[in-house]
Amino acid sequence: MGSENEARTVLSEDAVTVKYEPFKEIAILERDMFAVPDDLARFTSIIAGGKSAGLYWAEGVVFLYFPLPASTEITARMLVEQGKVYWTFVGYSLMPKYQQVIETREKIIVPVMDMSANRMLRKVAAWLKEQK
After folding, report:
1. Which of 81, 79, 114 minimizes the C-alpha distance to 95?
2. Nearest to 59 by CA among 127, 131, 132
3. Per-domain residue ranges for the chain?
4. Which of 28, 72, 111, 115 could form an S-S bond across to 121 if both were Cys, CB 3.0 to 4.6 Å?
5. Is 101 helix (H, G, I), strand (E, B) or coil?
6. Taking the alpha carbons of 57, 63, 69, 73 in that order, is the dihedral positive or negative?
7. What is the bridge-based pairing of β-strands 31-33 and 25-28?
8. Residues 86-129: pLDDT tens digits?
9. How much is the pTM?
10. How, if at all, do strands 61-67 and 101-103 pair?
11. Contact 40, 46 (CB under 8 A)
């Protein structure tokens, strides 16, 4: 009996396929360019209500984004059928060199994650840089 259950477990584990299916399109509904990274850091602190929040960096751009949750039937269908996601807002600023934190004159400290290894976020950053 034990080996029969073992065989079922092995079969079910072998039946699992892992497949990478990246988004095909990101639709940005609203974007705002901040004059300097410090302004974006202040904005991030305000919208986070004083809680810890961070920013992303790639391709000389520091940014944050708010995805539209795939909790509605329409957004879920767009994601599954077309690989399309919506970001309701993107705030960004040019920051040629990566730095781990942005500290404003008011001593607001916002961490920055280097996302250069992420192909999708590199593409977003390059697109944002062109929007100036």
Report:
1. 114
2. 127
3. 22-131
4. 115
5. strand
6. negative
7. unpaired
8. 999 999 999 999 999 999 999 999 999 999 999 999 999 999 99
9. 0.80
10. unpaired
11. no
